[in-house]
Batch of 2 targets.
Target 1
Amino acid sequence: MAPAQAVKVFEVGPRDGLQNERQQLSVATRVELIGALAASGLQHIEAGAFVSPRWVPQMAGSDEVLRQLPGDDGVNYTALVPNLQGFQAAQRAGCREVAVFAAASEAFSRNNINCSIDESFERFAPVLQAAKQASVRVRGYVSCVLGCPFSGAVAPEAVAEVARRLYELGCYEISLGDTIGAGRPDATARLIEQCARQLPVTALAGHFHDTWGMAIANVHAALALGVRTFDSSVAGLGGCPYSPGASGNVATEELLYLLHGLGYSTGVDLQAVARVGVRISAELGIANRSRAGLAMAARSAGEQHP
Ligand code: HMG
Ligand code: MG
């Protein structure tokens, strides 16, 4: 039998998830959450964001979070940085990987990071330069790849152009963000095909929000076209503070259930992630948004009390 193909799962719950939850968690609780996610086998965890605490108060204390994470457990702990100031703070906290975030829509760029797309690239260039000197890896995000909350439709060509610019600047991987979670699998396929004309499909990641319930279907469409990295959030936490009405990322539990069922290997224990999802939802005082997580919890309860 051929060995299972590997898919990289990039857990973004502690950043993309928590940044949009009403309740702000303490540094200690965030560190504990990240530790439990790492213990479930996740090898890539976005642990915080070095952005203005006035813009995103939930990410205040990211420096402390990153400082308290183990430096020698082989897990890739990353953080968002919008500019050189953010990069320098991330470096002081010991980050070995950061992510810059651009948008495919001018309106979103202005609302999210207070500058145009071109200006954002002027801010990213010194980050990439400093990161190269310090051997820090840089990931790139493109937001609004399947629609913008402010200006509506976004052309796949516009997304591919921003993705190419990030890749050429030195980002090793480009995560395509359906920020408002409006895309369907047909549009996702057109998007991936367009981007794969500009950069290797192996350098693309899918980042699907689930506002319209299409996130897991979009993962399936992107998988079929060769994408092998997906961002997800435990318990489907989150959204984006600058994307009104958007819901959380595809739940890590749903992603693992799909991938394992299709025969892909991830190195992640679904049951362990589901337990973390139950705990963090209770901590936040919200309903668990992962249906696979809920199903897993119900099954475990049934096993304990047949
Ligand atoms: P600005 O006001 O244009 O910045 O904000 P500025 O350079 O004019 O500086 C103003 C103040 O911000 C100054 O402080 C700076 O020191 C401070 P003051 O002198 O007034 O006291 N400042 C900073 N503070 C902390 N960290 C920094 C930093 N830079 C400047 N790095 C800025 C520009 C980018 C800072 C602001 O717009 C911001 O923080 N935005 C937050 C954006 C954000 O985090 N959005 C959510 C994440 S993106 C997302 O969720 C989408 C994604 O998931 C993919 C998808 O789903 O599509 C990635
Ligand atoms: Mg997002």
Target 2
Amino acid sequence: MSESKRILIIEDNAANRKLIGGHLQRSGYAVQEAEDADKGIARALAEPFDLIVMDIQLPGTDGLTATRLLRANAKTARIPILAVTAHAMRGDEGRILAAGCDGYVAKPIAYKEFLATVATLLAVGQAATE
Ligand code: MN
């Protein structure tokens, strides 16, 4: 088997991190976690990741601001970012994509759809770097 794709989950809720991480690990991905944006950004700058799952509602630096910071840094600018948010309100998807996220999944997460979106974004990201 080829080397596992590396995914960073930035999510403040421990139960959600465990749930999201469990689904990703069972799908064969290598998962790391961060509980807030500052730790997540530091981790993303220190190690290579193939995809970032970004909670939008975070304490301190929120997920949209964190996405803009990652996009502004050459080291992390091209990593696909999949946003997850409880606020499935009209206009949210536009704001999320405008901030630089590549995709959007509303909570509660439908995991079949979530994992399909992860696979799609990883494929796009791989094509972009080859
Ligand atoms: Mn949150």
